[in-house]
Design brief:
The protein has a single domain, classed as Alpha-Beta Barrel (TIM Barrel), CATH 3.20.20. It contains twelve helices and eleven strands. 41% of the residues lie in helices and 15% in strands.
């Protein structure tokens, strides 16, 4: 069984140095604390802990072997999306991070694949960078934020990104960032526990009700953290479309198979929730993910899938077979 983890993040010390030189205002720095953890500083904010596997490839490979992961799909750290900075800086830091991810993939072609990060504050540049990353670097798509400095993903300005993604058959992964309601979520780490799945849900709803998924029927959109609340509230979305005029504003036809329109990583942190997701979405829509190296990740994802009471072929699909197909592109 060939296992592929489609949700992981990387920021090597070499990449941080390059970003610091290119964008001193963002001041990206990794400050090791001990043998296992560091502090990640970006634009005056500190994230801790940033585990060693996030920047140390040797440790990453050891952890992959321990988890039973054959291949990781590498993506940038959400902290370095830098959507709040100007478009020129966004394009420059995206180029650096994508080149660096491609360098890791080239060094370990049997262990890594890659997703690009994009300067989403300038959708035309983002579409160009996606095309370069797929066609020239061999990356398989992109991971991008659930909103762009507060702009929802159904904003018409983003149309070039979706058109390019569909033309390239790129794998597009939504990761929460700059989450809604953050002022009310400061206590108890709710900004992550609730804010992250909430913002992923908002992003998916905007793409769906905004007509983006309708206009681009071949668009491959994967939702982080088991889809946020999407798999559990899709019935409410359908009911709302039927009884209210507002959901019909850009979605004229009655929606069907809402859940099956998206892909999901397996990070549910609960066997029963994962089983529900697979039952509702189908094994062909759920992909192994870990959110490595962060502490809110799920390092026992393979074991959780193996415990599911589903056919072996479905387990193999979730653990890697389906990802292998989805991560192919038209490059």
């Amino acid at each position: 069984m060939h296992t592929i983890d489609i949700h992981s993040h990387v920021l090597t010390e070499e990449t941080a140095t390059l970003l610091r030189k290119e964008a001193p205002a963002a001041h990206v720095a990794i400050r090791p604390v001990d043998d296992d953890n560091a502090v990640l500083d970006v634009a005056g904010a500190s994230y801790r802990p940033f585990p060693r596997g996030g920047f140390d490839v040797t440790r990453r490979l050891q952890d992959m072997d321990r988890m039973g992961v054959d291949v990781q799909v590498l993506s940038a750290t959400p902290q370095t999306y830098l959507y709040g900075h100007d478009a020129a800086l966004g394009a420059a830091v995206s180029l650096i991070q994508n080149d660096q991810i491609a360098k890791l993939v080239a060094a370990y072609p049997q262990r890594f694949m890659g997703l690009a990060t994009l300067p989403m504050q300038d959708p035309l540049r983002a579409a160009d960078e996606l095309t370069r990353a797929v066609r020239k670097l061999g990356l398989r798509g992109a991971m991008f934020g659930s909103n762009v400095a507060g702009r929802n993903l159904d904003d018409p300005d983003f149309e070039p990104v979706w058109a390019a993604a569909e033309a390239l058959d790129a794998f597009m992964f939504i990761h929460p960032t700059n989450v809604a309601g953050a002022e009310r979520l400061k206590a108890y780490y709710l900004v992550n526990l609730i804010g992250n799945p909430l913002d992923t849900t908002i992003a998916a709803a905007c793409l769906f009700f905004g007509g983006v998924m309708d206009r681009h029927p071949k668009l491959k959109i994967c939702l982080a953290h088991a889809g946020g609340f999407v798999p559990y509230q899709a019935g409410r979305w359908l009911h709302g479309w039927r009884v209210r005029p507002e959901p019909k504003a850009r979605l004229r036809r009655e929606p069907n198979r809402i859940i099956q329109r998206f892909l999901y990583d397996s990070i549910a942190h609960c066997d029963d929730s994962l089983a529900f997701l697979v039952a509702r979405a189908g094994a062909d829509r759920v992909l192994l993910g870990s959110d490595y190296p962060y502490d809110m990740g799920m390092t026992d994802g393979i074991a959780r899938v193996c415990r599911l009471g589903i056919p072996e072929a479905d387990k193999e699909a979730i653990l890697g077979a389906r990802a292998k197909t989805l991560l192919s592109t038209k490059a």
